[in-house]
What does this fold into?
Amino acid sequence: MSLFRIFINQLDEDDLEMASSKKVITREEWEKKLNAVKLRKEDMNTLVMNFLVTEGFVEAADKFQRESGTKPEIDLSTITDRMAVKKAVQNGHVEDAIEKVNDLNPEILDTNPELFFHLQQQRLIELIRHGKIEEALEFAQEELAPRGEENQSFLQELEKTVALLVFEDASNCPVKDLLDISHRLKTASEVNAAILTSQSHEKDPKLPSLLKMLIWAQNQLDEKAVYPHINDLSTAQLQDPSE
Amino acid sequence: MNSPSSHFIHKFRHSSNRQDMATNEEEESPTELNTINSSAGFLIVSPDKLSIKYTGLGQHGHDVGVVQSNKPAPFKRHAYYFEIYVKDAGVKGRVAIGFTTDNFKIGRHPGWELNTCGYHGEDGLIYLGKRQGETFGPAYTTGDTVGAGINYDSQEFFFTVNGTLVGTVSKYIKGPLFPTVAVHSQNEEVSVNFGQEKFAFDFKGYEASERNKQQIAIEKTSVPPNINYRLVKNYLLHFGYEETFHAFDLATNCTVPPIYVPQEDGVDVQDTAYALNERKILRQLIGKGEIDAAFAKLRDCYPQLVQDDKSEVCFLLHCQKFIELVRIGALEEAVKYGRVELAKFIGLNVFQDIVEDCFALLVYKCPEESNVGYFLEASQREVVADAVNAAILSTNPKHKDRLYSHLEALLRQLMACCLELRLLNDGQGESLSLNRLLKNNSCKRIKKTG
It folds into this structure.
């Protein structure tokens, strides 16, 4: 009786082994599946419009509405204001940006202490960049130090920023990233997101997350099947399974 | 092999197809206990079909009072869950909760037979198709609320007691599963909750955290920089949205910092910008329903496309012209036009039923409201515009035979992968719907009032 049971158990394991080997899908079969996917043109248009609007490409969104008939999900006029703020930050005119944000909606900065701190920090960086050392120190003492006292992570950021002053050639110091234009862009992005959220709009366009989903889905499917991939998103070319 | 034009013929036929919306919504779900297929001799089911009471003697292994739900658990979602409340554990406390398939054995506890699973209250063991159970969770008795669930993503069964998860076990059973409850000693009484009442266990929270797990894994992946701009540009060029492209191109050149475009992209833009202006003009004309003007423009610039009057491009344009005549109520003219231009397509399988559907429009006083009303929608004009667009692109000597824009190719790959994943998971799990994703605005949902 027990020998029989061992035999049955072994059979189960063999069956499992066969089942765990991957399903092979040929290029022809896969292309059939791809062509069978139900994808509506309107949905793709909406996806593109969503991108243009969230990223703030007003003129393009307006033209797209005319050329494709796709309706933007938010009023295009609100985009112009938002873009003015974003541009100001990108160009290093932080004081101007703060004024604009408050004009748009004073609640945004009131309810976003982290954002406000980052804007002030950017202002400090710009002062340092222009060699206005005295002004920078005064600003740091009056505006930023009090915030640093309230919040540990703000304090750390503040200290990092002030460290820029220690080096004669700040462009080669350990905290040089702060001077990089990418930091302005980061702050600009933050403001952009906060404005969108205050307008009850999602701060991120949907397109990037769909692309991430694609990579994730291919990884998941790799565990169960052999099939043609798209490895280079920019060409969207199908690669044969053997490659 | 799928030729470009048959792709558009297919779309023309099914232009505003709302079918794909239905896949997730229309699943049946358990609502009560199944009184027909239960061990009638050993239990009675309450009139509301949500409670059972043991009436047998509980003397051996074949007089279990067991019952299934009326419908199997729905599976096109992340997870399913239900609960029981032990009103009375009776003399021996031999209550069980679990899942069985549609050919389960009457009179046996869930878990004892193959392709069943059961968590038993008497000993707290889990039974997975054998008479011997394995250590699993606590024993449970009168006053306890016990829940059983299926996680389709991880392919596991999970159980809870009084709102707390007590364990999970691999789901080894394939096919539709029925929530199952059993009682096996005198005076045992149990009631069932299929969601009509609030659960003791935070199932919604559990579902949300499962969804989140997926989200977090997805967020971790990285995409090439600036890919979004490149895809949008390619999309605009592919479909001939010339003015949008130029506005977008201008704006991206003015961004801070300017968006880096690799060498290959320059070549790609050249290719896809082929005949951009003509394609834009044709899209505009067709978008306004000016089909005669569209024909004239094509004869002018791309005579090879309209030479063969029986080609698919000509077919679509003629159909659309017919539809435009119906739209303005010029029915006699429509009939005349149909006789001259559409009659020749009867007898050609691919086109015939579309021609018949078009002619059907003539019959209705309010054709927009008929079941062929979709022909009158703007999306129909769009299909024709897209078909003409693709035809012009194909005249490019450097044409690479790419039917889809890069964006569309990526989206199709995404959907095909998700469909295949579900297929390999026996159709279980939540399906991906682009339409639903686009409509879903989490900001609007959490907006506070006042």
